[in-house]
Amino acid sequence: MAKVRTDNKTRRKYVSHADVLDQQLANPVVRAAYIERRYVQEIARAVRSMRESAGLSQDQLAALVDMKQPAIARLETS
Q1: Alpha-carbon span 4 to 14, nearest angstrom
Q2: Residue 5 reports pLDDT greater than 90
Q3: Confidence of residue 14 (pLDDT cuts 50, 70, 90)
Q4: How many CB atoms lie within 10 A of CB 61?
Q5: Cβ atoms 51, 64 nearer than 8 A
Q6: For 17-60, what is the HEC assignment?
Q7: What is the pTM of this model?
Q8: Is 5 helix (H, G, I), strand (E, B) or coil?
Q9: For residues 17 and 22, what is the distance between their CA atoms, to the nearest angstrom?
Q10: Is 78 in contact with 43 (CB distance < 8 Å)?
Q11: Which positions ≥6 away from 4 have C-beta within 8 Å?
């Protein structure tokens, strides 16, 4: 179970995000899914960054790679 902490100023109790994440990532299935999702997000950011650096719209990129614009939008927001 994640450690309950107390804020020194407000005296409110809370559980830190890092503690909860560490607890959940101890499960190998959760860890594998988390890592896979992080890779997908990194690829999505890279595609958008490269597209923008090239000065291309989603429509233009879609035409270059023989896809439709909504597919590019879905890819970039994965």
Answers
A1: 6
A2: no
A3: confident
A4: 21
A5: no
A6: HHHHHHHHHCCHHHHHHHHHHHHHHHHHHHHHHHHHHCCCCHHH
A7: 0.69
A8: strand
A9: 9
A10: yes
A11: 13, 14, 15
Using an 8 Å Cβ cutoff, are 13 and 5 in contact? Answer: yes
Per-residue pLDDT reduced to its tens digit, 22-78: 999 999 999 999 999 999 999 999 999 999 999 999 999 999 999 999 999 999 998
User: Where on the phi/psi map is residue 7: left (φ > 0), alpha (ψ -120 to 50), or beta?
Assistant: beta
With contact defined as beta carbons under 8 Å apart, do 51 and 58 qualify?
A: yes
Residue listed under structure tokens 């499960």: 27
Residues 55, 47: Cα–Cα separation, whole Å: 12
Q: Give CA–CA dist 50/29, Å, rounded.
A: 32
Residue 31 and residue 52: Cα distance in Å, rounded?
32
